[in-house]
Amino acid sequence: MITAQAHSNIALIKYWGKRSNALKLPVNNSISLTLDQLYTRTTVEIQADLTQDQLFLNGELATPGQTAKVQAFMDLLRQQFDCHGYAAIHSTNSFPTGAGLASSASGFAALALAASHSFGLHLSSTELSRLARQGSGSACRSLFGGWAEWLRGENPDGSDSYAIPLAANPALSLAMLVLIVENKPKETGSTDGMAHCVATSPYFSAWQATIEHDLGTLRTALQTGDFAAIGQVMEYNCLKMHATTITAQPAIWYWQPATLVLLQHVYQLRQQGIMAFFTIDAGPNVKVLCQEPDRAKLVAYFESLSEVQQVIPCKPGPAAFLV
Ligand code: PMV
Predict the structure, then answer these.
(1) pTM (predicted TM-score)
(2) Nearest-CA neighbor of 283 among 101, 30, 17?
């Protein structure tokens, strides 16, 4: 019985659009921060009497849809590494599942690590990242602690599409506050959402055309430790991603009215001289990036708002590990 823990990551420069659906290959590189408080713990036990993999999510038998995704991933692992046997898989999230908090990222990173060890494999972090990517694209970044960049790669077989750790200026002392406005699963998952935007949004090409510039800006800002530049490019990139969703046909609105209220609060805070910046994924919740010295007062500020159900204050989190 092997247990692994992997932490969720939030992209500052987003992965939004695949060039191969089957292999989960992205159109662009993305850069993320792994968070300490959002994680998945997964136990894998190969059992001789099983004829298929079983999935239990947060203590309950998972839905057929969730189970099918995990079974497909386990099939892939068995095929690619010539392993045998089926597993009982117990997975627990420290946060709401499927609400735009990257549960699939931490989930597939933890599963890649626990399942590969259950089959007696000792894969490198690059191999694990490439494997986790095939479960959920963003999972390839969750093998690493702190900052990670997912290299889109060029090869049609995806062999060069995996994440690498990214060094940042040690003077940076950051926190990310996850503001929960709604904790029910979203209507359009990220896979369907991004495919719909690639296919129907006239703004998708503009999104792609500006990505390299955003990546370069963020890499430089991380090296120099320029917090304002990090925050600005994060917001800008997020809004461009969401511009592709609201200009798809039909439109996808991941935001709720509360989401927009929170963006206004972030703008107001900046007017008052408090450096805080937002990002939003494929769901209504808002993540606020701030500097560590401002963390406590910002937590209290957001906790006092009626739009916010819960604040999860996070720091940069660790790489995936065996428990
Ligand atoms: O890995 P997926 O299929 O859950 O897609 C994640 C997409 C975003 O969270 C919106 C962006 C990202 O890079 O994580």
Answers:
(1) 0.96
(2) 101
